Amino acid sequence: MKKILSAILTLLVASTLVACGGGGGTAQVQAAAADTVLPASAATVALVPNTAFQFPSGVTSFGTTSTTTVAFTSASATPTFSISSDGNTATGDTTFGSCHFHITASTFLPPSPLAVGNTITVNPCNLNANTHGQLANGQGQSRSIALLLGSALSSGTPITISINEGGQVTINGQSAGTVTLTPVTGT
Length: 187
What we know:
Layout: H1 2-19, E1 30-32, E2 36-39, H2 42-45, E3 53-55, E4 68-72, E5 80-85, E6 88-96, E7 99-106, E8 119-122, E9 125-129, E10 141-149, E11 152-153, E12 157-163, E13 168-171, E14 174-178, E15 181-183
Antiparallel strand pairs: 1-15, 2-9, 3-4, 4-5, 5-6, 6-7, 7-8, 9-10, 10-11, 10-12, 12-13, 13-14
């Protein structure tokens, strides 16, 4: 009887080790399932100070049809901005809900929407970070980020983005939000 119990115990231990994989397994590699879309706000534009977003075909809401560059030039509750196109510039401050560009100085002449004293409201107004497929390993990578203003999407601008194992996205060393992760197959 003692031999039978010993044999049963040996089988139980062996089957437990096989079921558990022997304890030598590794965690599944994860990657971002999609790009990260961040609605523009004082906090999100502070992630990209002085980043020049170029719109090769202009921005309809601004009344521009040639290359237009937009940059948020401060990190405050109402960040300042600079817009340039065709040798003209406009500056002012921004509030959010959508993006509300309040023009306080400008070389654009009326009736341009970018003339002094105007406020331009643009919706949607998002930062689109290229995170799709990026490994969730906490390592910073040069990826691109673009600014969406209404139907106009800027060219991608290089920026450092990392994603940790929990899906936390970091842009330029600052927490930016989360992204859904998916297992990487074929590794």
